[in-house]
User: Which sequence fits this backbone?
């Protein structure tokens, strides 16, 4: 598959998975909705974080497209400003955590070097950054009614959703031996003699 096609399908796949997870969340956890767009359990938050950790910029683009689609046509069709800003904020937050993981943990695409503790840290960081950015914007717009309660509800929902999705995917990736083997080669690449590397190439 060409690089362009890979990027395209990464973006499209992210958008589709996000919207599918949103539908599942609305069907299963609709009773957990605190206010419109804020749930006590929010699985799409896990998709947001996971897609950026796995796909980087492609995942972020897919998230932006999906977030705009659901905000403009489902959550807030009567408020285009909120839909536009909300889509950007919902994308910036997980991408910022992805950059943190890249710099601090030398993130791999397989996530194999992300220990359960590191996953917990990243999920917590995202669950703080995302609600905080949203509610700073709400406050700037003068929307401060029950702002502390909404912020807390979004934090809990994002944290729960992120943990469910991250640990599920981490467990799934751990069962693929080819992924672990590739990471092992990457870790010990310097130990392979140059002559052997040329043979492998």
Assistant:
């Amino acid at each position: 598959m060409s690089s362009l096609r890979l990027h395209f399908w990464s973006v499209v796949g992210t958008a589709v998975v996000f919207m599918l997870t949103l539908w599942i969340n609305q069907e299963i956890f609709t009773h957990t909705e605190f206010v419109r767009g804020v749930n006590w359990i929010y699985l799409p938050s896990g998709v947001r974080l996971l897609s950026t950790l796995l796909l980087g910029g492609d995942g972020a683009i897919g998230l932006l497209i999906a977030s705009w689609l659901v905000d403009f046509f489902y959550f807030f069709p009567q408020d285009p400003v909120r839909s536009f800003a909300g889509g950007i904020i919902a994308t910036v937050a997980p991408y910022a955590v992805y950059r943190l993981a890249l710099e601090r943990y030398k993130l791999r695409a397989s996530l194999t070097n992300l220990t359960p503790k590191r996953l917990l840290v990243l999920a917590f960081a995202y669950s703080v950054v995302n609600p905080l950015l949203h509610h700073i914007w709400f406050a700037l717009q003068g929307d401060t009614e029950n702002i502390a309660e909404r912020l807390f509800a979004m934090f809990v929902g994002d944290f729960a959703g992120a943990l469910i999705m991250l640990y599920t995917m981490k467990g799934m990736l751990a069962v693929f031996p080819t992924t672990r083997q590739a990471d092992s080669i990457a870790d010990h690449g310097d130990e392979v003699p140059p002559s052997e590397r040329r043979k492998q190439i």
Remarks:
- Residues 3-176 form a domain with the Arp2/3 complex 21 kDa subunit ARPC3 fold (CATH 1.10.1760).
- Strands lie at 33-35, 38-39.
